[in-house]
Amino acid sequence: MRCLLVFVILVCLPGIFNYQGRNDVVPKIVIDNVNYFLHNTEKEALHWFCLVLGICSTNVSFAQKQPQLHVKYGWGQLEFDWQSQSQRQEYISNRKYIPGISAPIDVDVYYSPDGNQYNKIFVTIPRFQEGVPIGLGTVTDNKSDGNPIITPYPNWSWHLNSEQCNLNRIVSVYRIKIDECGRLWVLDNGRLVDTIICPPQILVFDLKTNKLLSSYEIPRSQYEKRSIFVTPIVDVRNQCRDTFVYAADCQANALVVYDYNNGNSWRVTDKTFYPYPDYGTYNILGHSFDLMDGILGMDLEPLNRGDRKLFYQAMSSPTLNWVYTSDLKNQSRFASDSGSSPQIFHTYRARRDTQSAAMAIDKDGISYSGLMSEVQLICWNTQAPEYGPKFWEVVANNKETLQFISGIKVINNYKKNYQELWAVTSRFQRVADGSIDVNDVNFRILVEKVDDITFSTRCKKRGPSGPPGGGYGLFRP
């Protein structure tokens, strides 16, 4: 479309410049408006051509169909790759497996950089209720009653006898992250239903071999009895060994910063990590439930002159915040007091009208997240001077498939050389109030090409230069 507009300008310029008596004015008009349409949507630019040049076509459609993420997988209830039918029956008898209870929360996808290895699609299944047999698995092509079967990762032995706290264990996982080095980072919160039965830990797997590379138990001094670690953000720099993990604790309202190279961690706290009481009640399509979750949704902007911002939000809140990772990585700041540096945390002054959970940021610095009550997916350019409805755009709107976006990732598809957006959605409100119907599709994994989602949106356009939001809602001019 933009090529067409440029062609029209080139064809029309000679005649315009030779227009009698207007040679001193028209070039300025043309230049100004060329700049305009190059920085605005095709629809707006074509409208300008119709008004100014009289070039209109009834064959040009201004309506842009909003892309919808297509459903890759759907479940009425989760079904697993049991070692035997007797194992399944034993789990049901002992209430270790209650059909219809398990709910997927996050997704991540491994595309081998060489394009030859079989792809893996991971799902997390936190064990916050009784009857969830595993905490992490991969989706297979096999089905049971129409439900894709999930096989435990890396195998069943990691999920058996969790209460024994074996060295090779996975208890409960909300979210995971696959990095550019082909490693899977698993944040295991160690919690079974309401109790931490094993120390929370960070596991790292080599996805080429599915072997454990390292494990790190978070020190007891860095979490509380109420702690629930829910989101790991992995920050890789020059070499794969130079890696930091920012782990969100949504109930103790804290971050744990893990230095992978040096094998140590420290705790960071701030009031921007806390939930807002007025946002503790969720209402999704007529179903209500209460959830007071603090810091949860997080992701990193692209590296910029050796530093980058970590964007984050408390789930039960209306605000978006950010902090420089260089400040979080400065252990000495927090050595004596985890809450010693309120000045490094910043909050945009604009607010949402509803809650938002996970977020993901693509290579161009465009952020994606869901709006709970509106049941929508939005994009927002992290380079914009502010946050809020004036700066974001709704890119998907489907009351059926976009309910409760709990997990979202931007994935590099190396073979096709583009980025994809993957998301987990669910009728979590029905899980919360016990009204789930396993005969309906309750859980979905969605996917769409990133460029198709943001095409012709304001998210693709950089906002005017200006300072970002200031600390604690104060805009810094």
According to DSSP, the number of beta strands is 29
Helix and strand content put the structural class at: mainly beta
Main sheet attributes: strand count, strand direction, barrel closure? 5 strands, mixed
Low-confidence stretches: 1-64, 463-477
Strand content: 25-35%
Helix segment tally: 7
Short description:
The chain is mainly β. The protein has helices spanning about 1-15, 25-40, 40-50, 85-95, 325-330, 430-435, 450-455; strands at about 70-75, 80, 105-110, 120-125, 135-145, 145-150, 175-180, 185-190, 190, 195, 200-205, 210-215, 230-235, 245-250, 255-260, 265-270, 280-285, 285-290, 295-300, 310-315, 320-325, 345, 360, 365-370, 375-380, 390-395, 405-415, 420-425, 445-450.
Characterize the structure shown.
The protein is mainly β and 477 residues long. Helices cover 13% and strands 34% of the residues. It has seven helices and 29 strands. A hairpin with a 6-residue loop joins strand 20 (309-314) and strand 21. It is globular and about 55 Å long. The two termini are 38 Å apart. 40% of the residues are buried.
Notable traits:
mainly beta, 4-stranded antiparallel beta sheet, 7 helices, globular, disordered N terminus, disordered C terminus, signal
What topology does this entry show?
Elements: H1 2-17, H2 26-38, H3 42-52, E1 70-75, E2 79-80, H4 85-93, E3 106-110, E4 120-124, E5 136-144, E6 147-152, E7 173-178, E8 183-188, E9 191-192, E10 195-196, E11 201-206, E12 211-217, E13 229-236, E14 243-249, E15 254-259, E16 264-269, E17 281-284, E18 287-290, E19 295-300, E20 309-314, E21 321-324, H5 325-328, E22 346-347, E23 359-361, E24 366-371, E25 376-381, E26 392-397, E27 405-413, E28 418-426, H6 428-433, E29 443-449, H7 450-454
Parallel strand pairs: 2-6
Antiparallel strand pairs: 1-29, 3-4, 4-5, 5-6, 7-8, 8-11, 9-10, 11-12, 13-14, 14-15, 15-16, 17-18, 19-20, 20-21, 21-22, 23-24, 24-25, 25-26, 27-28, 28-29
Helix pairs in contact: 1-2, 2-3
Family: Belongs to the major royal jelly protein family.
Subcellular location: Secreted
InterPro entries: 6-blade_b-propeller_TolB-like (IPR011042), MRJP/yellow-related (IPR017996)
